[in-house]
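Amino acid chain:
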Amino acid sequence: MNKKTVAVTAFALFSLFFGAGNLILPPLLGFKSGELWGWVTVGFCISAVLIPILGILAHAKLQGTMFDFAKKVSPTFSLIYCYIVYTISIALPSPRTASVTHEMAIQPVWDSSPLLTSLIYFVLVYVFVINRSKILDVVGKWLTPAILIILISIVVLATFGQNLQFGASEFNNSFSHGLLEGYQTFDAIGAVVVGGVIIISINLKQQNTPYELKKKLIARAGIFAGLGLFLVYAGLIFTGALFNDAFDHDITRTLLLSGVSKETLGNNATFFLSVLVSLACFTTAVGIVTGTADFIKGRFNESILAYRITAFIGCVLGVLVGQFNVGYIIAVALPALMFIYPITIILILLNVLSEKWASPIVFRSVVVATILFSIPDFFGSIGYGEIISPFTQWIPLGEYHMGWLLPALVIFTLGNWVEQSKN
């Protein structure tokens, strides 16, 4: 395992993670957090960096598919969970990449319809997905370095071109706002989806490599990718905070990023931003569609036909949903995230732990507790917040939409106490 292989894999991981939400969410967070941008950064990076990288470490340990993440609960639950996650992934974050590309890269230059953008975009995605054996090299060697160069330029120019003064924060609790906004990156879900893509890509190129070497490769690449994500997110949030007084506070995510880019990159901003958005979004869409197609292929006895049909369906969904505006897709995604994200976080954390602390009984009980206490947040996100408020006010951390956290921790502790007392 040489350094070049680790670097290429780390770059590929970073690029598969870093898509539409990762690009447009942090600047607005920083813009609205002002002087409290540091707390927002901590919260955001817990849900958008730490948990996803733990997901990659879990993949390094399991070296299987997403099905292996939840099979300790039960095979049936794992199958249902996989289908829900893959359906959400190809129906929301994947199309959102096309929507962001249209609003930020195409619309400012050409007066074309979003449907045309989505159509051309997902035709290209399909071509990449069908040639999946080349994904790791193309993404890792070429696309990620281009993304990083443009991002670093924006952050550095903003830092040296602005007075280091910040306005007042709009948030009552900056940490929880950052944490929950990190859900919208889909990175925890991305970890279990694109992590599988990385596993299969490595197996295609290094079929005879021992388990332990592949484990080290994936783990090291994951850590380096996580460090890159952290630096980029912190830089974008910090940059947004620097422009706290430069734009109207009702500005949209995409317009803010465009405005910041023009302030830092000058007259060439439109071109550089178009390249950045297109590359960042495209690599994520490729990773999501590939991961979904890989999973279905595995369910149908490694059928190439099943792989191609799934990739085609994923791209058709991308075309249909990708023509809607970014704000609408983000709003539609919220209820699904409030329910599936806590379950995904818990599965990632349990899979990282050793077998001693994560027995099948502990798995089942903690996941059940997480599901039950995620239901209020789900109903709150679809407009029933006032109706369920008499119940949620009694749940610790319920007001921060994290009512599932303490019950899951309590059940985890009790489950392990019971298990250890048997021995």
